[in-house]
Amino acid sequence: MTISRRDLLRSALVLGSAAALGPALGGCATSSVAAPSVRSGDVDLLFWTHDQGYIDFFSGAVGLADRATSYRYALRSLQIAADDLVTKLIAQAVAGRGMPDVAGLEIGNFARLLRGDLAPELLEPLDDAVADVRDDLIEARLAPFSRDGHLYALDSDVPMAVYYRRDDLFTELGIPTEVESWEELARIGAKVHDQTGRSLGTVVTGTDLGQVVQQFWIPLLQRGGGLFDADGELSIETPEAEEVLRFLVDGVQSGFLSTVSDVYGPAMQAALKQGKIIGLSMPSWYESYGLKPNVPEQAGAWRIGALPPFEGGGGRTSVGGGTGFAAVTGSPHTAASADFVASAYLDPDQQVRRFTDLGYLPTRRSAYQDQRLLTLEDEYLGGQRAFEVFADLVDEAPAVYLSPDIQILNTVLAGALVDAYRGRSTPAQALTEAAETFRSQADR
Amino acid sequence: MSSLASAAPTAVVRGTTTPPGAAARRTLPSAATQRAPYLFIAPFYLLYVLFMIVPIVAALFLSLTSWVGLGTPEFVGLANYGNLLGDSSFWTAAGNSGLYVLVAVVLVVPCSLLIAQALNARGLRARDLFRVTYFVPMVVSPIVVALIFSMLLDTEYGLLNSFLHAAFGLPGVDWLTDPSWARASVSFVLLWRWVGYLTIFFLAGLQAVPRELYEAAELDGAGPVRSFTTVTLPAIKPVTAFVVVTSFISAAQLFDEPYLLTGGGPGESTLSLAMFVYRAAFERQQFGYAAAAGVLLFVLVFAVSQLLNRALQIGRAA
Q1: Is B216 among the domain residues?
Q2: What is the value of ipTM here, to two decimals?
Q3: What is the dihedral of CA A228, A229, A230, A232, to 10 degrees?
Q4: What is the maximum span of chain A, computed from C-alpha positions, in angstroms?
Q5: Considering the domain boundaries, does residue B56 fall inside one?
Q6: Where found (chain B) (predicted)?
Q7: For a surface tag, which of A43, A52, A117, A368 has the fewest beta carbons within 10 Å of its beta carbon?
Q8: Cβ separation of A16 and B49 shorter than 8 Å?
Q9: How far apart are CA A409 and CA A106, in angstroms?
């Protein structure tokens, strides 16, 4: 029999397609055979996170978890970029192997798991693991990591936003540290900028879309709004959203707010070092991840305080960011993983340690009365008892609601915000345009 | 006579007697001999099928489904394609990719040719130094390139705006955050990175042009421009055609530069089609939608490449 080249190619194509597509599509389905769950004894957990600080924290919690549970844990850690972590998690789930047991999911990327059945397919509900302390957990930080009434991850933080200020320069320039409202601070800030070229706040206009949106989201939450409502529906076409955006646009145009390409990188470092930005509204973790790395020499010069409220209403704080720790489902170690996360995070001493070691605020309400935290003096903040500020604000922390389409909103809203800051569109136009584009792209 | 000739046509060659079986082996190869060439080329085609054909077939299948990346894909027919055609983001990305293609073909390729021509000039000193200098941007990691340019082009604290302000008193330009300037910035980086690489191809082509042709043209009274248009360009047409087609394909699938420099922003003003596909799949968990966009991108690139191949007569004898 003679085989032509065309026949050979056709045969290979058919066989190859069948061989590759079969397992590939089979792999998409959830496995129905599960190994028996490990209920005690030695457990080797694979832990994925984007932050070395979490690796150190969880590694240090192994002994405690051993005592608190029926397991003896060994922890292997892998550090992966926050975006890639979720992508790799899904890829490994399709492959059916190489899954982590515990994963730290940055809040923006956790939202990707809200699409379809990804969250229940990949993550173990933690309702039972937290049942004993559920009433003590700060409710506002359960919402973003919950779906259909189930909690899929424990937030690492209550990332409350406060106002950071260069106390030395505020004193030198005669800027009051207690003001009635954002609007009053904006009026003062405009004058300061006219006279000195310095700004009392910032908005982001760079290429990190999440940062651009976050700098709008933080004041919007403070004002009582949000990007999405409790049902996950878009909520940027509201009077609050327009008011907040107008406030930011006016601030940029008056010089009260400075635009930077990102709040961690070289541009921000230059602005801080040159004293061009001497105040800003950022979450609690910004001291550890923004100020200290960029301007360590300014230790002692910074202070924090509650955010000035908006004249139109809202609270004295907001939130930004967060990372949820989850136990991956479908593994013999799932129960052990859930117990590990709960014991490492919810133990009162661990709540304290998370703040002292990482700067992440406790997620249990009772920890806000802990004297170890309340009396803690922060050298970078000139010996200020920073925790007292947070304890005073914790009950005003707003809840954050997510949507699986938040990445779409980040794209369309970031562009609209920058257009508004640059005067290329009005705040109302920017928000309407973003909302319309969002609706045309969501639910695909 | 005829029977003798047909029975053993080679048996009397060189006046020796050859066994009939040996003659038959030469005229009618065995099945194993027939298959040998196919077995030799089989590894390539096997890999080609596994890593090229199968993914394309899988992408075609996925493009007809809605899939979040896990679980069973839900068949939706041609809905993804219908949605794509009505998606303003897709058309924005297509427009941007069209711009990058234009920059690559209309700007990068001619610049590369001119630089190659300059490097090929007789008596040029430090030729290797220039060649290395032009080629370096291509071998520098795109991450480093993005970092450097983002620092240079920062609106408030970038070196370029500081220079423009100090030297000319100009206000800051939003190089990366104004839609038009952002496109221009990505295009400039494209130019900066690719020119040196393509110059190498042109230089190889130019060095293969016989010197006699230029001497003959000079004797006929042709100046440098005339020599370039009547000798150089026709002589390097195959190289030019290759460079144009590969530049088109690379620019149509551009990802690194806009992804790292602007993230596709501000808004979607620098989003390329390849980024659109990536974003849909790996940021939004819309794998079916991403596959549909990928299929359209593939069809577009394939079709235009074929047209260019024919128009430029690539692979055909002159």
Answers
A1: yes
A2: 0.74
A3: -40
A4: 96
A5: no
A6: Cell membrane
A7: A52
A8: yes
A9: 17
- Which residue in B has a C-alpha nearest to residue A271's C-alpha? B157
Q: Which two tokens stand for residue B251?
A: 């620019």
The CA distance from B66 to A406, in Å, is 19
Q: Could you tell me the residue ranges of all domains in chain A? A: 41-158+321-369, 161-318+397-441
CA distance B276 to A38: 43
Q: What is the DSSP string of B248-315?
A: HHHHHT--HHHHHHTTT-STTTT--HHHHHHHHHHTT--HHHHHHHHHHHHHHHHHHHHHHHHHHTTT
Interchain CB contact of A270 with B (< 8 Å): yes
Q: Copy the structure tokens of residue A26.
A: 């089979």
CATH number of B212's domain: 1.10.3720.10
Query: What would the CATH number be for the domain defined by A161-318+397-441?
Result: 3.40.190.10
Q: Considering only the beta carbons, identify the residue of B154, B265, B289 that sits closest to A415.
A: B265
Neighbours of A40 (CB within 10 A): 11
**Residues near B274 by Cβ (< 8 Å), separated by ≥ 6?**
B97, B253, B254, B255, B297
Strands (E), B47-174: 65-66, 74-75
Instruction: Please identify among residues 185-244 of chain B the ones whose CB lies closer than 8 Å to any CB of chain A.
Output: none
Q: pLDDT tens for chain A, 444 residues: list them.
A: 444 555 544 554 444 544 444 444 444 444 444 567 888 889 999 999 998 989 999 999 999 999 999 999 999 999 999 889 999 999 899 888 889 999 999 998 999 998 888 999 999 999 998 999 999 999 889 989 998 889 999 998 999 999 999 999 999 999 999 999 999 999 999 999 999 999 999 999 888 888 999 999 999 999 999 999 988 899 999 999 999 999 999 999 999 999 988 898 888 998 999 999 999 999 999 999 999 999 999 999 999 999 999 999 999 999 999 999 999 998 899 999 999 999 988 899 999 999 998 889 999 999 999 999 999 999 999 999 999 999 999 999 999 999 989 988 998 899 899 999 989 899 999 999 999 989 888 866
CA distance B139 to B143: 11
B180 contacts chain A (CB < 8 A): no
pTM value?
A: 0.80
